[in-house]
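#struct-pred

JT: dropping the chains for the assembly here, can someone run the whole complex?
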Amino acid sequence: MKPGPISHNKPAPLLVFGAHPDDIEFGCGGVIARETASGRPAHLVICSRGESGTHGTPKQRTAEAKKAAALLGATIEFVKLDGDSHLEIRAVHAIKLAGIIRRLRPDAILAPSLVENQHPDHWRLGKLVRDAARLARFGGLRELRRARPHAIGQLFFYAVTPEAEPADITPVVIDISRPEILTAWTAAMEAHASQTSARAYVQLQLTRARLRGLRAGVEHAIALFPNDPLVFDSLHQIARGSRKF
Amino acid sequence: MKPGPISHNKPAPLLVFGAHPDDIEFGCGGVIARETASGRPAHLVICSRGESGTHGTPKQRTAEAKKAAALLGATIEFVKLDGDSHLEIRAVHAIKLAGIIRRLRPDAILAPSLVENQHPDHWRLGKLVRDAARLARFGGLRELRRARPHAIGQLFFYAVTPEAEPADITPVVIDISRPEILTAWTAAMEAHASQTSARAYVQLQLTRARLRGLRAGVEHAIALFPNDPLVFDSLHQIARGSRKF
Amino acid sequence: MKPGPISHNKPAPLLVFGAHPDDIEFGCGGVIARETASGRPAHLVICSRGESGTHGTPKQRTAEAKKAAALLGATIEFVKLDGDSHLEIRAVHAIKLAGIIRRLRPDAILAPSLVENQHPDHWRLGKLVRDAARLARFGGLRELRRARPHAIGQLFFYAVTPEAEPADITPVVIDISRPEILTAWTAAMEAHASQTSARAYVQLQLTRARLRGLRAGVEHAIALFPNDPLVFDSLHQIARGSRKF
Amino acid sequence: MKPGPISHNKPAPLLVFGAHPDDIEFGCGGVIARETASGRPAHLVICSRGESGTHGTPKQRTAEAKKAAALLGATIEFVKLDGDSHLEIRAVHAIKLAGIIRRLRPDAILAPSLVENQHPDHWRLGKLVRDAARLARFGGLRELRRARPHAIGQLFFYAVTPEAEPADITPVVIDISRPEILTAWTAAMEAHASQTSARAYVQLQLTRARLRGLRAGVEHAIALFPNDPLVFDSLHQIARGSRKF
Amino acid sequence: MKPGPISHNKPAPLLVFGAHPDDIEFGCGGVIARETASGRPAHLVICSRGESGTHGTPKQRTAEAKKAAALLGATIEFVKLDGDSHLEIRAVHAIKLAGIIRRLRPDAILAPSLVENQHPDHWRLGKLVRDAARLARFGGLRELRRARPHAIGQLFFYAVTPEAEPADITPVVIDISRPEILTAWTAAMEAHASQTSARAYVQLQLTRARLRGLRAGVEHAIALFPNDPLVFDSLHQIARGSRKF
Amino acid sequence: MKPGPISHNKPAPLLVFGAHPDDIEFGCGGVIARETASGRPAHLVICSRGESGTHGTPKQRTAEAKKAAALLGATIEFVKLDGDSHLEIRAVHAIKLAGIIRRLRPDAILAPSLVENQHPDHWRLGKLVRDAARLARFGGLRELRRARPHAIGQLFFYAVTPEAEPADITPVVIDISRPEILTAWTAAMEAHASQTSARAYVQLQLTRARLRGLRAGVEHAIALFPNDPLVFDSLHQIARGSRKF
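RK: done, full complex below.
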């Protein structure tokens, strides 16, 4: 495993997993733009080249993802699991992802939601990341013996479409209303030109973020779904609710 | 409506509603001790004198509640609704509570959980407070015309017993591990001497807080249940998850 | 009870209940425009004059509702229950609403959703209508002895805000994409000028309908939530699913 | 992949998947009889020969399934996945089923429900079909490059036993009361003579359909569970509710 | 409060509450027949005379209920709350029912389920009984000061129709297959002649009990829904599961 | 398959599956101590040697498990599936476990809960055992042809941590308050010395059992979660509820 691209003098990075080259941008690109804008490193791990999609070649899609990552201020790498539309839940995959977690040593991780009624790669990757975050802590795992165990702070799920939003987790809502954030996010989505020409993905996501923002009393917002309850030192940190109407 | 007991040069107070003189202490006393320890005013509103309970006279119980509030560093007032074990969901009650909200102008409110399989006064008060928090915003409400409308930041529910913890809201976990917080909370619970002599209430709550703390990797903790999703500016604020095992 | 305003030579009317003068337009106005456009009578029953709201006098709001109903091609009446923000769940209210149902003899009824975390009048009215639809069938109810019992075909719930959408009922999605429908709906919402000047209600609803439409592969759509499972003679009638992404 | 057995001058066929030779008949045979009676082609795909069951040889069970399909007016084919009681969720299976979907080009698909507490092959096949229905749309899938992508209208789940009925999807109820439908369904169930001699399967299903019918106010009915919300042009199409008591 | 009709030398009685004269028989009559057949006293409390129903006069219905109770081997009393179809959730009702509980001092109580989408009196009575069972324990309740507090062992809910079965409580299944039990239950249901002539109530219930029995591997069975988890000394007592298919 | 270690002149054994050497002791050791104390044989099947954990060698952990089993009065065997942290859901595993069930012929089985947000081996083993319990009944399964089919009475799930307790199954609560039971359980947990030195597992479990006991009105208790509804002959057997506060 080669050394990670991120220096450890910075704050702990945000680590984001996506099943296809465009999932991260469409599902939570605004959050990444928000985090990198405040100086936090973000690293994207893409688990296929989108080779089974209707539009775009693997080469095109790789280039689009790299461009989008740059627009979001994030670094990017590609990892090969079973390939687009072929992902299965295998221990070997979870262990490979756990190795990436140990290398990057993030505080927070974002992964696709576990709701199953969506692209079959999405929720499978979500489950693999959830398992990987746990395996990253286990000192005796022989495949990862050379990488120091690492416990993350929190795993959040993002939803690529409204259908993927889990009904059984209370979301946290991230305010992404600052114009430069919205601009960067929109540009990153549009970087996936092979996809956006065929379907109204950008409009779907901006409409969704606007609706979430209206509900929360801000311009635009994105909901994330924490895998475990959040711990706070005081109510002072959590005094803002999402209920404008 | 007489002027509230809290000066408005301070940070917005925490406002806490309880159906009986001891509910707040047993359900979330540790959180209140935590907040007042950091300089935030807290005000308790008790909606009966506990006059239908098996133990303690109304006079005793009022005195116990006052003593407990002082131990938590909180102010206290009593409001008469239908009386202990007689509470009904009436618009007039919600409006009365909305008047208290307008007077105190809190940022956050704590109220008993809406889970119905517990003391019938608990969830009814929770529903009344939830409705009151909304009515407090409506400018045309004739009964409250002299009190300026007020929108709170967030409503949290507390659970007096484990049975009252809602299964459909992801909790936030408040770390109350500092020894002086635990000491103040324990003293406040024990101030309800008429109750604690009959049942192992204090042990129940400390065991519960210890279990919640063990799960979160701290000494003691209390779970609260937000009525609406929480809004944040950044993931930085929510990087700590409750999953130690 | 005076004779209803609707002749019975026409198809059975759609009967719609709203707690405040603008709830119906914001929550399901597009569906009403769609039904009246195809020749089905629709009748709106408004259960307050919005007298507790921050903006608009009862007189203004009554006029706005009448104008909006006309724009939707619907008839309208006002019924007095407990008044805005004062609604309670009382048998006498359910019986009064059951009398209206017996008079109008609708096939389908629309009522506000039962989700409780919204304006307290909304879900209470929803519960009263649900009970009323049942009471309308009972031949022995002494208050309604002079009105012939009536069994409706189906009760649907509408959600005034996204927060009011029930998570435990699979919705049906009504396509309201035809431009004249959208125009009529928008005009009906804007007829509530006292409200729309203060908050972005129209934008909220159009954004919501656009998002629901994008998900279903149409321009705009509104979700309704059936109170009971729907019965069909054949799969032929239900071959269109809402899943475009 | 050989050419499908169904001419495309007819209406789009109903495509039904079953894990074992008798699952379709027991779970939704009445619906198939109803559809074919009105001239719609139906095609059954059976994914094992029932070779792990206690009763009946694979040869017997194949013959029984063919006889039952004929009684329902449906065509039938057998596809080999992992074999009875050995089914695993593999991408290769989902792709194989997606190929069948592309070949048959159905409007609606029926598959076993996803509830896991039943025969392990049932829910696994349901998940594979759900994934297959999505994969059938993806133009870049290399294994299926020669078959034109196809998007179905709706996927419904059927429940082989009451235990398999999902609690989180509002069902649609199909009226199968016409005597000739019930007769055809019963005959198709009884065609599985190796199974019905050992357990009261036919009685279970007729009792279930009678109970569902009584609830809906008809003689017999079968519930199906849509994978996605249904889209309609008007309330007119959905005016019949299932609530007789 | 007059002395109860049940001597206290016997085992603790089963106490059953019904909203209308026939609810208990239709919802759980077989369970009562089963309990009285083994020598346990059962007492029915009916909270209206069915005076709002379409069929039968209050006098007829009272007589039918008395006859049915006798056929079940149970005693019966009528208590007046708000009247048929007029029941409201009032503290005074819960306290009155708590008084009955203190008088009868039952071990187990049966009450209608809390699912709201049914006759409005049913779930309201269920909630009142649930609250009453709690109030019966409170020593300070002034209205009941002369009746010694009483804590029941368990509260179970019964469902008058399949729609009333709660989806969020795992049921316990009571085997009522013995022919004399089924005979007594059927006779008790048929004693409500004013109702059974108009709707297929008896057939609905027998079909339901047969389906539940088939699922559990017995002739007939009725599901009850415990309000709180059950406590056991050993797994030995709970070794029989309901899963025959 | 070698002959089982348990003579069949005794009552049917309790069969307990664990993914790692310590899971059974931490999750439900008190229940096993309770059952063996009353003369019922219990047999533990451990599906890894804990070789991926941070602490303890496989050899140490095997020894610890054997010691713990002896302290609980249970027999033990180890079965090799995919190894610690590598478990996958494969048909071959379920069939292997079904073979163990046929050999031991238990009445009740305990397995780890299906809640997925825990160690990935836990819920996967739970699913495999659930499937295995069903496969054990199928006469035609070729791999198990030499072992007579067996139908168990009930499958219960245990939760290794509070996070693993399923929210959608009503638990049964087993009273383990007798001092000798608690002593045996504590000793069995402490036998896993390699684990208990690193984390407060014993304290977690005793705190949890104390809290569950306080809620049920006993000293200590453990909740189990039945896979299917329980069948009873009479209410007499289920008269004790868990609700002390």
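JT: nice. The two ends of chain C are 50 Å apart (CA to CA). Chain C has seven helices and eight strands.
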